[in-house]
Automatic annotation (TrEMBL):
It catalyses: coproporphyrinogen III + 3 O2 = coproporphyrin III + 3 H2O2. NCBIfam families: proto_IX_ox. This is Coproporphyrinogen III oxidase. Residues 13-453 form the Amine oxidase domain. Keywords: Cytoplasm, FAD, Flavoprotein, Heme biosynthesis, Oxidoreductase. The keyword Lyase does not apply. GO terms for molecular function: oxygen-dependent protoporphyrinogen oxidase activity. One of its GO terms (biological process) is heme biosynthetic process. Its cofactor is FAD. It is an enzyme of class 1 (oxidoreductase). It holds the Pfam family Amino_oxidase. Pathway: Porphyrin-containing compound metabolism; protoheme biosynthesis. Its EC number is 1.3.3.15.
Amino acid sequence: MAEPHVVVIGGGIAGLTAAYLSSGAARVTLLEASGRFGGKLLAGEVGGVRVDLGAESMLARRPEAVELARDVGLGEELEPPSTAKAAIWTRDALRPLPGGQLMGVPGDLDALAASGVLSEEGLKRARHEERTPAVGADIAIGDYVAARLGREVVDRLVEPLLGGVYAGQTAEISLRAAVPALLPIAQSGGPLVAGVHELVGRAQSSGGPVFQGIRGGIGTLPEAVADACRKAGADLRTDSPVDELRRTPEGWQVVSNGEVLHADAVVLAVPAPQAARLLATDAPGAAAELRAVEYAGMALVTLAFRRADLPEPPAGSGFLVPPVDGRQIKASTFSSNKWGWLDRAAPEAFLLRTSLGRHREEAVLDLPDEELVARSLADLGEAVGLRAKPYDTAVTRWPSGLPQYPVGHLDRVARIRAQVAGLGGLAVCGAAYDGVGIPACIASARRAVNEVLTPGAGTRATEGTMGA
């Protein structure tokens, strides 16, 4: 039997993973519309130092990303953060991020009180947890936590943490999709704080770092996966937008740059709007669902300072900013403190970055670079007393950086997958479906490969070392 041809559309980490996992059982062609691979994983140079200009870490308590990094030869380059001592800039002061919380939902009220993040009134409300009716299929996490523990917990903890992950609004973010570990508590009507305390304790008992980085930046991961794909014989192409995707009696027809490719199976690893365009003819229902997926835009501002210009560099790994406080930035990461590899690579420099913009507040992305830098410096000056001028800066815009997961999102995903599966030989994957983090995107790609290739065909997807 001839080797099947799998075409992967999209060269972000999900598409690259799909190509890598397919390469043991199929002839693989990957088509990426832009001039590079990696999607939101992007390494660059600021102030003569290689840094991440996109995602900078990956969750280590899910196995997929760490295992992929090891599979493609980066095992020795994995490095956890040097410090995880983060803060929240709220109520006009930097306050320690309280321990014992899960995405901002507190499981240790004594730690919360000691942090000073909440006012006395807010803390009193949190200590008097309200019993609310059991949740049905889903609820907005902001609404659920506010009803249980008070609005201030949401505004000053859940919003900067969970809202920061999605660059979204907790009044819309699905509890079921974003923090599924809390769903049994919500559906049982049981105590929230005690439930979170148990979940956090269970996670901590597993040991190991919560996050991992890679020396040289997370942006090295897609480069390594692409190299592994090429070594396995995959044909990886940049500057290759797909103009047309059509079902044929023999399989699929893919048109890119005027070339017609015939595929036995296709993995669609592009953002929802692009997937909707390509599925409009053969899966109009799925296309309509995909068009309804909204995205948030953001900008990352990376600043390089000379340590000689800093009387006292900021301490800790950085801080989060609750939107309720009305600041310009929503977070800052002190990269040279957080990543030992970066500090060793550039001991005379101090690099940090800020983020601006979130869902429905993307107008900030239209501001010139100089203004985004100025706003970042103004907030940093007020937050940590930073008065020095950077010797180099970089602004990276992600206009559709993060898909939003509103209430009902997982039902929408199920409908999309059901309609796509009915076509045969086609699967979707990426951040729009199963989670926005790197491990979730990798797991999504693995699922897609398993759907389009015959089980037991000997692919890395079913026989390799990747986590389930």
